[in-house]
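Notebook, bench 3.
Goal today: get a predicted structure for AEDO dioxygenase from Xiphorhynchus elegans so we can plan the truncation constructs. The sequence was checked against the plasmid map this morning, with no discrepancies at the termini. Length recorded as 248 residues. Pasting the sequence as submitted so the record is complete.
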Amino acid sequence: MPRDNMASLIQRVARQARTTFRSPAGPAFGENLHRLQQLLDEVRAEDLHLAPRGPSAAAAAGAGPPWAGVVPPVSYMHICETESFSMGVFLLRSGACIPLHDHPGMNGMLKVLYGTLRIACMDTLPGAAAAAAPPPPAAAGTAGPCLRALFRSRQHYTPASPPCLLSPHTDNLHQIDAVDGPAAFLDILAPPYDPQHGRDCHYYRLLEAPPAGAEPPALPREVWLVETPQAADFWCGGEPYPGPRVCL
């Protein structure tokens, strides 16, 4: 495919994202979101001048990820940002995980560029639902606030999968794990994170863990989460974006 066609694809994605999220409460939002989803589904790693990265030097059995403590487990390539949305690429090293986190009041779209991701999605439940079921005993020793959530899905995504979508009320909490090697995904968040306007990122962990060796419980199911600080073994570095320039 000629380079100008590749450039036009990511440019068209950005322009459609700007149109879509400029008026998220408008009557045409659903139609515009569908158009954006269709465009995003066409994007491939080569369109952004990315090549799948091989695993780092193999770690000894049981030694953990080879990058641990040396380089960031996750890197971010910034593409563009406006008041209504941000777009960039996340690169996860083999074995890396973006812990369970939220996107307050935000829409989001995620398209895998290479590798395989396991994405667990959850919804927070209203206070009335939480009051109907008391927190488990494990909550007694936690420092952070607890909340009731619906664990909706846990699915694998590859470059052949359609984009993973989240809204302010559906699949707004998710955890992203790289499966069987490194992975990368194109990410759109609308509007961008902004702590001054109540859109800060919060991290959580499940209070109930399935018994060791047991099959994971069926989904969807209600769970309790506890808010936690950012994990000490998770941080995100930056890398230059090598793809076609986006102008808005």
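The beta strands are 74-81, 86-92, 97-101, 107-124, 146-157, 164-166, 173-190, 203-206, 221-228, 236-238. The helical segments are 3-22, 29-42, 127-131.
Flagging this for group meeting.
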